[in-house]
Amino acid sequence: MALIVQKYGGTSVGSTEKIKNVAGRVIEYCEKGDMLVVVLSAMAGQTDDLIRLSKEITETPDPRELDVLMATGEQITISLFATAVKSMGYDCCSLLGFQAAIHTDEIYGKARIRKIDTDRILKELDEDRIVAVAGFQGIDESGNITTLGRGGSDTTAVALAAALKANLCEIFTDVDGVFSADPNICTHAKKLEQISYEEMLELSSLGAKVLDIRSVEFAKKFNVPIHVRSSFTRNEGTMVVAENKEMEKVLVSGVVFDKNEARVTIVKVPDRPGIASKIFNPVFKAGIVVDMIIQNTSAEGITDLTFTVTKANFDETMKLVREVAKEIDAEKVLGDQNISKVSIIGLGMRNHAGVASKMFETLSKENINISMISTSEIKISCVIEEKYTELAVRALHEAFGLGDEKKQN
Ligand code: ADP
Ligand code: ASP
Ligand code: MG
Predict the structure, then answer these.
(1) 243 lines ligand 1 (CB under 6 A)
(2) Ligand 1 center–CA 176 separation, angstroms
(3) Which atom of ligand 2 lies closest to the CA of 151?
(4) Third-level CATH fold of 3-174
(5) What share of the chain is helix, strand, coil (3-state, %, to 5)?
(6) pLDDT at position 404
(7) pLDDT tens digit sequence for 157-182
(8) What is the CATH number of domain 255-408?
(9) What is the pLDDT of residue 351?
(10) Can you tell me the distance from the alpha carbon of 147 to that of 75, in angstroms, rounded to the nearest whole number?
(11) How far, in Å, is the centroid of ligand 1 from the Cα of 173?
């Protein structure tokens, strides 16, 4: 008998018909004798609709009230799911974040899970019930409802699996697993049988939304094996697990893109001590996360400084940086939202030179200009014009032989 935490994403519970299918699938596990905790997302599009409603009232909704509103999406699906399970003759109990005792910090819209008190869930399991938990939400110390950030139901599931010491965490989604590139963009993308936590962290942070990055952080920290698989097929998916010997052989395991960043360039910045902190302090103070930063070598005491932020933070960043630019006598501030970041990731890069040059050569063959580059031990990212994103992903996927067993690296 195993304790399994399963999570079903928005498309998997996008209609009452689909919810009934999910209920049927969960019951199959119970019939085998497993204990099930099922985390559900809101129906596909529901969270966006709720945000839209709020923005019909004001462009800047109160963060506490927005969380109260957004959390209702998952309340609907857990209730419908529990209703479906019960109608099929099994017992089920739906729990909202606070009832499942998912305690978070107080940062609305981006709360972090601090601890989970598993007593209630264990009691329900003990009484032979399937437990349905609302994903994406928790409660802060003062009793306010919080949400974990978009895509946060994955994190709820993995955190619950860790707290309950579950045997497995299964993430059911609308694709068959984790692929060598987004299968909706790259038709030749290949499903990976397994991937290490490190590579998955890079994939998630560089734009693959198949797993929320915080869920992978939890999984790595508490060594929770994750099985990413489809709710629409019976195929085996991808295991996300600790690194093993077999994995090291693969040079590049995936290509990923992110269209969600924008670039800010400060032209002709006087190059003297303290300038970087003057520029970035107001940005950091506003809670804006800066990703890539490039500063050119200074010529005659003057340099250019370029960095990227998310598109959502672009307007605010431009405003803040324009103010600093005046103060420090920089010439001007340029912004560009039509960029995207294309990255390749793979454990094998650690011990191989030449991967970067192959990446640059591939992009240049397609006449794609690279405007920024950043590397880490197991990834290389290039910023390019947004309109070339799909072309770049497909060309890199082909160049590194990711879709083809024989050509693989
Ligand atoms: P859910 O609603 O189930 O949480 P998401 O839409 O958040 O699902 O994540 C699944 C989507 O992630 C897929 O439909 C796919 O387009 C996208 N995706 C991006 N990169 C990858 C990848 N490398 N492998 C699999 N899916 C990917
Ligand atoms: N419903 C939330 C969202 O759309 C959380 C999730 O689906 O994981 O972001
Ligand atoms: Mg998701």
Answers:
(1) no
(2) 9
(3) 8
(4) Carbamate kinase (3.40.1160)
(5) 40, 25, 35
(6) 63
(7) 999 999 999 999 999 999 999 999 99
(8) 3.30.2130.10
(9) 81
(10) 13
(11) 7
pTM exceeds 0.85, yes or no: yes
For 363-379, what is each residue's pLDDT tens digit?
Answer: 999 999 999 999 999 99
Which ligand gives the minimal distance to the CA of 156?
2
85 CA from centroid of ligand 1 (Å): 27
Q: How confident is the model at residue 406 (pLDDT cuts 50, 70, 90)?
A: very low
Residue among 13, 47, 158 to mutate when testing ligand 2 (max atoms within 8 A of CB): 47
Find out whether the beta carbon of 41 lies less than 6 Å from any atom of ligand 2: yes
> Going by CA atoms, what residue is nearest to atom 9 of ligand 1?
210
CB 202 within 8 A of CB 343: yes
Q: Is the CB of 307 under 6 A from ligand 2?
A: no
3-state secondary structure of 88: coil
Sequence-distant (6+) residues with CB within 8 A of 62 are: none
Report the first-to-last Cα separation within the chain, whole angstroms: 41
Q: Give the residue extent of every domain in the chain.
A: 3-174, 255-408
